[in-house]
User: Fold this.
Amino acid sequence: MVLIVRCCFGLWVGSAGAVAATAASDANPFRSGSDEQQSASADAVLEAFDWFEDGVRFQTGDDETPKDVAQAVALFKRAAEAGSAPAQYNLGTLLLAGVGGLARDDKEAAKWFMRAALQEDPDSQFMLGLLYSIGRGVEGGQSVQAASTYKN
Assistant:
């Protein structure tokens, strides 16, 4: 069985850096919230990135981390709930395959792909469009929705 692992560390580091830079910048007229709120937001992004990165390590295994897909699922879920699009995508693919202690759940997979697709994640947009086109995990007969999802 082939598991799809997606690593977008550059994207997340860039996003975290942008949030941190926004929090530290007094010259930004569009900044909302206090410095403490902005700092907490940057910390949350970095924490979600760490959970995602650890999940990838457990999913694939390496010299320092034994392969443990169940642990990877737990970490991906934690990061996905915190808003990590790459973790939402990985969780969706694991739910489609029904691995790591997860029962196969097309509807739950579609939910995670939708969350990531709304963050403009192209792989999740593709997977969601595919699910719409074949009627798995979503309401069937939604070819217009499938077409607009694939288009992105």
